[in-house]
Amino acid sequence: MRNRGYIVYALLSVALSCKQHTKTHAEKTFNDQYRIEVAQVKEVNSNAFRVRVELVGKMAMGKLNTDTKMALLYHMDSAFYLQTKGHVIYPDNVEPVATGDKNKYDYLVYYSKEKTGKGDVTFYFDDRFITDNRYNLDIQIN
User: Fold this and answer.
1) Which residues does 68 contact at the CB level (< 8 Å), separation at least 6?
2) Residue 64: CB partners within 8 Å, gap ≥ 6?
3) What is the pLDDT of residue 65?
4) For residue 129, what is the domain's CATH number?
5) Residue 7 domain-assigned?
6) For 35, 63, 78, 90, which has the most beta carbons within 10 A of its beta carbon?
């Protein structure tokens, strides 16, 4: 009876390890200024991503003025976009998420499934409020 349990455990381990893994999560630190993390969220009617923009290094030590903080919370609707096969896709909705940390800004970014489809895309964060630079990460939509 005990051997049967070991055999079942071994078969389950092999079956689960053979599952195809996809890159639905990516994170990267850029120039000791930002750490950006993007993860796909399971959503029925849209392709949603949880995005964290974290100020790091010298950026984390600097003081942001009130206008910049407000912009990072409420004016990010065109700061995120996807690019796939030469097409730029802007989100249908961007929702700021409260973090309680002055150096972390979280967002839920929604795209319609009809626009994005599935497959490899490049996710862009266009920082117009602090560095005026564009940052990108490769991710896969499932």
Assistant:
1) 129, 130
2) 72, 130
3) 87
4) 2.60.40
5) no
6) 35
